[in-house]
Design brief:
single chain, 276 residues, 0% strand, elongated, SPX_prot, SPX_dom, SPX domain-containing protein
Length: 276
């Protein structure tokens, strides 16, 4: 599938990708106009188009970085709050409720990492297309430096995801301990924690069975995660499967580490995916 069409299809399900899709389409049109002017020998006109293109690209890059930094601040605050709550939980029912929130948050982080990697791919492909069609580079936005931009921070996103998974693991273990203690009290004739307030006991099948989450686990836990999170995550995963299947060699899917980031950058800088 052509990258532009893939972006457009993904944007129908993921609102955060819409701006990436629209920007990619605008930049493609700019490059086509520049190539046309250059083929006519209008070098003065080409210089003007080149300046406009560089300014637009620089502005887009600044917006990507600003979006990431703003979201980073929100993520760090929410993550620290969830970890703090996890340390202070005292009931099995409280564990269940907090696990649900952690799973929701985990899904948001996966989608945010998807946005970051897709934004990098789109930017790298535009720079490649510009070089191919015009023979020039954009000094203000060198392709080899994209992996150092704030918006492309897969290792940071992965660290957030792993911390969230660790919080879920802690809550699952604590929930099992509290449920066991509650059960022993109930057998001794005392009401269980979940029944004191007239509520049903906490059910084990409402929580994730595994720490390392995947979409099948989220969808199979009886409504732990909202349908919207599941659908959007499925779309994100399908997008990268399509990118890999259309590549000459499978693209590297990042997990963590600057070495992997460089590997991903290298795979994109080669002509793996249809540039259209």
């Amino acid at each position: 599938m052509k990258f532009c069409r893939l972006l457009r299809s993904t944007a129908q399900h993921l609102p955060e990708v819409r701006e990436l899709s629209e920007q990619y389409k605008r930049q493609k049109k700019q490059i086509r106009r520049m190539a046309g002017v250059l083929s006519d020998g209008n070098f003065a006109g080409w210089n003007a188009f080149e300046a406009q293109f560089a300014a637009a690209l620089g502005g887009h890059l600044a917006r990507l970085n600003e979006t990431f930094v703003e979201r980073e601040e929100q993520v760090v605050m929410r993550l620290e709050a969830l970890e703090s709550e996890a340390r202070g939980i005292a009931t099995a029912e409280g564990c269940t409720l907090l696990i649900r929130r952690c799973v929701d948050f985990h899904g948001e982080l996966v989608l945010f990492m998807h946005w970051s990697m897709l934004a990098y791919t789109a930017m790298a492909k535009i720079l490649k297309k510009h070089l191919k069609k015009t023979g020039g580079t954009v000094p203000s936005v060198p392709i080899e430096a994209l992996v150092e931009e704030p918006f492309f921070s897969p290792e940071v996103c992965c660290s957030w995801i792993h911390r969230t998974e660790n919080a879920i693991s802690h809550l699952q273990q604590l929930q099992a301990q509290l449920a066991a203690a509650d059960s022993s009290h109930h057998e001794a004739g005392e009401p269980s924690m979940g029944q004191r307030d007239g509520q049903r006991p906490c059910e084990g099948d409402e929580v994730l069975a595994q720490v390392h989450l995947n979409i099948e686990e989220i969808g199979g836990q009886g409504g732990v995660a909202p349908a919207a999170v599941i659908e959007q995550t499925q779309v994100a995963l399908a997008t990268w499967e399509r990118l890999k299947s259309s590549a000459a060699t499978p693209s590297t899917v990042l997990h963590s580490g600057t070495h992997q980031a460089a590997s991903y950058s290298s795979s994109i800088s080669q002509n793996e995916i249809d540039d259209s």
